[in-house]
Amino acid sequence: TRLCHVLRRLGQAGGLNTVAAAATVNTALTQRATGGVVYAWPRLFRRSLTSQANELRVGSLVMDKEGELLEVVKWTHTHGQARGVGNVQVEYKNLRTGGRTGERFSPSDKVERAVLDAEAYQYLYSTGGGAVAVLMHPTTFEQREVPVASFGPHAAHFLIEGCVVQMLFHNGEEISAALPDEVEVCVRDAAPAMKGESVSSQHKPAVLETGLGCKVPGFVEAGDLVVVNTKTGEFVRRVR
User: Fold this and answer.
1) Which residue among 2, 7, 114, 215 is least enclosed by CB atoms within 10 Å?
2) Which residues form the Translation elongation factor P/YeiP central domain (predicted)?
């Protein structure tokens, strides 16, 4: 998701066309496994990906024989006696139905890993009383409505107009939505610095433009643009 932060900065500097170009480069250059998610090359170069069962981990995404997308929610490798290779016991969650199934493998058995498409979308605004985020694809200008809750419990405080978020798709179906690791937010109100302490060492309460409260260093004032971590809600640095 750090890429999303980079894309936002690029978009601010060069507009939507720059964001679109950066998103295209991202899709073309990042075929990698991270937490069990494999980001795809463009469809022209896509190929099937397989792994051994003993390489699976909690969070890995695989395909079953019917083409259903499954997430590994439990993984256990039981070692056999003496020189036995043991077995791998896996519990899956079907991401479409929510149902759970189990399967047992030999460690060297092959499983098909899911190939996902990562797409950058720009956040426009929220509707439905703030419950639905309206996103726009920077290349096609297609608009998509996504539940704000998909981005996490505190997403409303970090979905800033113009922010670029990442969407993951499988065969055109939305799988997940993610905020960037960091966002730039304006400080709406900040308490005055306390006397008798260095402004660089003390922290004081502040309220961001989205209504989120957080602690900031003493030198931060109302109107400053700051970077905040979207996972912790903590101050990272002042931009200006």
Assistant:
1) 2
2) 118-175
Q: How many domains does the chain have?
A: 3
pLDDT in tens, 190-219: 988 766 555 556 889 999 998 889 999 989
In a shared domain, residues 61 and 83: yes
Q: Single out the residue in 72, 94, 113 at which a domain terminates.
A: 113
Last residue of a domain, one of 113, 139, 154: 113
C-alpha–C-alpha distance, residues 74 and 194, integer Å: 50
Length of the chain: 240
pLDDT at 83: 62
62-115 pLDDT, tens digit per residue, is: 888 888 888 899 988 887 665 667 889 999 988 878 889 889 998 889 998 887
* Residue 16: its H or E element: helix 2-29
The overall average pLDDT reported for the chain is 77
* Domain assignment of residue 210, given as a range: 183-238
Q: In terms of Cα–Cα distance, which of 48, 42, 30, 70 is closest to 115?
A: 48
Q: What is the pLDDT, as a whole number, of residue 24?
A: 38
- Phi and psi dihedrals of 30, rounded to 5? -115, 85
Q: Which helix (H) or strand (E) holds 79?
A: none
Kindly report the pTM of this predicted structure. Answer: 0.60
CATH number of the structural domain spanning residue 201 = 2.40.50.140
At residue 40's C-alpha, the angle toward residues 179 and 175, to 5°, is 45
C-alpha closest to that of 53 among 134, 109, 125, 129 = 109
